[in-house]
């Protein structure tokens, strides 16, 4: 209905047609709950009542879907203020030539940056309107002011010179999207799959044979649009630009006035169910001012290098796109103005030099100052202290570790001779190898030979000597002097040694010690490598003894040795203090082994 008079009726008709431009379909039964027929109904009703004033919830849902697909790009652009009707006026809410700002009439202005009386900026204010204006100051150049609305849209950035976001730009028509499955068209990436989802919910496009068989009928349920006489057109080569066919498990399409048109065909001996959509309207003979929602949308890819235009699958001429891409040196894409939108790290206009990215149309790409400051603060206040703390703890741990090792070694050395030094009645003698000399011709030896022990009378003030060996296997003792005589047999390993006799087998009794012995004297045997010489002064211990030392001599069955004994290479000799040095090669008489 054409409402030429009054103006409210004309405005309602204009709103209805603009609604179709933004993807809104006619309201079906049950959509318009916002207003009754007496109140004028809804704007997108098939047959409007006089003066409708509201959009239905169905229209709002269609608008959201349209924006999600990338539609409505023109809404982001600033209107041309020179084309306003009525001329310039301060207080109309539009910033016109000669005005710095316009916040409306003085009684309704709430902008703290603008003087409503003369439409000028207040003192120290740089701006009053726009998304690139914050706190009466211009945002830093490179701050994103509009993000991409879809796969074919491009972001826009503040320029630092204007409070308004630059005009919206998107990928040039013909640019690849959806991983090469579709082409960008008017900022939207249109695919058959997307349309099936919109019509059916969970669905996918049908086999190509479904498009060919159904759209070859040339009727209301299968066609490629109408000709100039309003007759449905048959199509086969352009079948993928006609009525869309889908596979879906849903009972019916979305919408109360939409029905399913099911067709079963055979392809390669297999039955395939093709599902189309038909929308009933209140107008006879078709959809009136609304395009059939069951038809494939213009710009949808229908083949390699082909798109749907005017219900025909035509070759997509991408001459402009190819020329623009060549100018971008492989470091960017082309926007809808035919300019390069450079990748981050490259500078416009041709992306061949290092820079911040972006284009001459949508501003340079820069890191937001807030994000940069936040990142630096996080690095200095969190990351750096954490790294320093870890390094400090690691070094301290290492230092304690080395101290612990050092203290452990000291404790080992101290424990070797601690017990022996506590008892002054015993003096530890270290038996060291005798260097080969010319005066000792009768003592043949090697690095493994030791000086044999000769039993003899014990001097006054001496105590029995206890010779033991470690538990580890002992090597054979080299042949010693022929005059060595052993007066006792070694004890078997594993049995406790017998108590020493009260008197020695020698006719001479030993003199009592100069100092009384403790009740439980503690002897700390000293480990030596080879027995050759007894020095008058003790030497520090070299290694700790085992808990249960064994005898240093062991019997052997070898008849080649005169004395029938072999000695361990490591012997422990415990000597009491003596009044003077002893002759070389002589030790005190060896009493039976005593253990403590």
Automatic annotation (TrEMBL):
Alphabetically ordered keywords of this record: Disulfide bond, EGF-like domain, Membrane, Metal-binding, Transmembrane, Transmembrane helix, Zinc
Could you provide one GO biological process annotation from this protein's UniProt record?
Answer: proteolysis
Q: Which cysteines are joined by disulfide bonds?
A: 145-165, 324-334, 342-351
For membrane topology, the record states:
Single-pass membrane protein
Q: What residues does the Peptidase M12B domain cover?
A: 1-79
Active-site residues per Swiss-Prot or TrEMBL entry: 17
Q: Which GO terms describe its cellular component?
A: membrane
Q: Where in the cell is it found?
A: Membrane
Identify the residues that the record assigns to the Disintegrin domain, covering every copy: 87-173
Residue spans crossing the bilayer: 370-394
Q: Where is the EGF-like domain?
A: 320-352
Where do the record's region annotations for Disordered lie? 437-523, 537-562
Top-level taxon in the UniProt lineage: Eukaryota
Q: A GO molecular-function term, please?
A: metalloendopeptidase activity
Pro residues bias locations = 537-547
Q: Where does Zn(2+) bind?
A: 16, 20, 26
Q: Which Pfam families match?
A: ADAM_CR, Disintegrin, Reprolysin
Among PANTHER family, the record links this protein to: ADAM A DISINTEGRIN AND METALLOPROTEASE DOMAIN, DISINTEGRIN AND METALLOPROTEINASE DOMAIN-CONTAINING PROTEIN 33
Q: What is this protein called?
A: Uncharacterized protein
The record lists the lineage as: Eukaryota, Metazoa, Chordata, Craniata, Vertebrata
